[in-house]
Each structure stands twice: as C-alpha cells, then as structure tokens.
Please model this.
Amino acid sequence: MSTVETTPLQAPTPSAWVDEAVRRWPELLSDHANCEKKAASTALAMMFAYPEDRELASRLSRLAREELRHFEQVDRLMQAQGVPYLRVKPGRYAARLRAAMRTHEPWRKLDLLLCGVLIEARSCERFRLLAARPADGAEGGTALPAPVAELYAALEASEARHFQLYLKLAERHAQTAGLDDPRGVVAQRLKELAAVEAEAATAPDEDFRFHSGAPTGGASREAAVSSVERERVPREA
Ligand SMILES: [Fe+2]
Ligand SMILES: [Fe+2]
Model:
C-alpha cells in the first residue's frame, strides 16, 4: 500500500528532525515506548467514553492490544541495546491537537477520531523516513543500529492500518450522527486539524520527541535534566 498517496498529512517531517532522531536514537526509542503506551491508552479511553458503540469498542480493543505489543517490542529492543528508560515531560504535539478539539457532541467524537488519524499517520511517516536511513549497527553516530531500523520498517505498515481504521470510524460516526454530507464534513474537518498537526510537527521545537518539530539545537542537554522530572499521566497520543 502506498502511504504517500493516502496520507492526510499536510507537511512532511523536516529532514533535520530525522537527522536528530538518528543521532539521538536512544532517546527516540524511550519516547517511542511512551507513544505506544499512549496509543493504547487513548484507544481504551475512547472505549470508555463511547461504550454504546460496539463496533468502535471491538476495533479499538484490537488496536490497543496491538499497540501494547508494539510497546513490548520497543521495550525488549531497549533492553537488548542497553537503552535506559527516560522520564520526560510531554512535548507540545498532543497538547496542540487537544486544544483544537471541540468539546460537544457529535463533534468531540469526530475530532478525537480525526486526531487519531493524524497521530497514526505522522507515526507511520516517521517510521518510513527512519527506516529509509542507512543502518549500520553503529552507536550514537550517523546511522541507526540495524535492529532499530528493522523495527521501524516493520511498524510502518501497522501505523498505516491504524490511521485508515480511525478514518473509517470517523466517516461511520459522521454518517450515524446524521450529519449532512458526512464525507464532506469529515474531509473538511480533517483538513483543519491537519493544519494544526502540520504546524506542531514541523515548526521549530526546543524539545526532542517522537512527534516534535524541527530541532532548534538548543535541547541537547534536555534528556539529562528531564530524566528527573515526573512523567505526567499519559493521555496524549
Ligand atoms: Fe503502534
Ligand atoms: Fe498505532
């Protein structure tokens, strides 16, 4: 499947982010482990918020289990590579998306599902970009260790499936909620949220995270500082 043809993203990840991610791959792995847990937790939160939606529950239950399996894969890889788990404060990405979401139904559910589309699509794009970089097994240098690149290549397809699932659920919701021109409503709102997402994922960003923007180069000591900070309750991705 070509993710290029189907991606809802409005701007590509800056190549400076990919360079930084290759250079800081241990921190990337640690934040990636967080993202997988958050992806599972977000799916569970939607199941709690909309228990009457049985199809959503069964689809997202499966998705949450898959995200937890991804977490286990990342965690095993971190241990095999000797990467410590770092506590970091959440980046701006999810907060910006959350700020753009509407809080009343049926729009809240639509926005939650469409944010799911965008987050999964961005993850998919970043896995693809990282997997495309040459891997040589070197540590802390200019290439990803081969097992890290292999994992990212394997995860790209899952995340592509996930963004398509969230999109399907969003279109189904727009229909069952009785909105006029459901497909048009979804396409228009996806465009609006995608503009917010593109800004968060590409504008200069002092923090380095799996979903951060273009690195400013001013945060190289951040990991050491933030390792003593408490991570907040995960609800961002
Ligand atoms: Fe995942
Ligand atoms: Fe996912």
